[in-house]
Design brief:
The protein has 328 residues and is of the alpha/beta class. Helix content is 27%, strand content 17%. Strands 7-8-9-6-5-4-3-2-1-10-11-12 form a twelve-stranded mixed beta sheet, with helices on one face. The structure holds S-adenosylmethionine (SAM). S-adenosylmethionine (SAM) binds next to strand 3 and strand 5.
Amino acid sequence: MPQFTDSFARRFYYLRLSITDVCNFRCTYCLPDGYRPDSRAQKSFLSRDEIRRVTRAFAASGTEKVRITGGEPSMRRDLTDIIAAINENPQIRQIAMTTNGYRLARDVVRWRNAGLSALNVSIDSLDPVQFHAITGQDKLRQVIAGIDAAFAAGFSQIKVNTVLMRDLNHNRLQQFLDWIRPRPIQLRFIELMETGEGSALFRQHHVSGAVIRDQLLASGWTAQPRQRSAGPAQVFSHTDYRGEIGLIMPYEKDFCVSCNRLRVSALGNLHLCLFGDGGVPLRDLLASDEQQLALQQRIARSLQQKSEGHFLHQGNTGITQNLSFIGG
Ligand code: SAM
């Protein structure tokens, strides 16, 4: 079975797999009222065997990187076993996870031993009071302790996701830079994306990553080349810093040209784009190992429907009410 490719000749090396919709944080731009089970959640999230099968099918069609996301992946008690199941695929060279960091200090050694090779931790503010206000959890110190534990467990670089918000953190670049000067952290500013539920917040706080890029370029930072299974960040480095800065700017022209990612939700639907598609059900083909070829064929066929761009800049938020079920 050949490499997954769409009708615009984009190749897909990277799967973002959500394993739960549940989250214990209440980020203002995502789940301000906290996670509430809805009718979808009456169904169960993908089991470890289903996750093994779906990742095997992607691996057999050229996927070399899987990112585990959510919801908050560490809310799953069987997370370590899930990592180990994905790690059964030798073609998958990198297993990454995006987490709020709440359970890092306690569990990171187990996750690493099971095969986790890369970590993204979400931190929108280095000020404990502001962190609490944004996430609904007074946990900045615990999350930072988790990052220290991850370094101690052997991760050589950790990525930190920071949603860029006007007047909240866009004017605190120096504080972030001071933090990463001695630490091998790639801190990635993600432009706030407009979702169905987040329109008011978007109007108030969206600011282009270009404001950060201009400041970096003016103070001696240089842009790095991009690798083929890398995520969407433009990465900048500086000789005086161990850390790097990444910019994820989905509103920038041509953002989608280099798209190499597909998503599978915790209920087993294939999403061709973070924004605006209803999802192709895969779960009926995850019941037994014998269905693998049919599964690969369905994914390959669905890819022909992947559109060229997300048209976010034209105000399209599609059906995406928030990013908690599809993994941000
Ligand atoms: N719970 C995990 C976490 O906190 O990292 C993983 C899921 S979370 C949905 C993944 C990422 O999406 C986080 O870094 C989060 O900040 C980001 N995110 C969620 N909603 C967003 C939005 N409207 N705009 C930009 N980034 C968003």
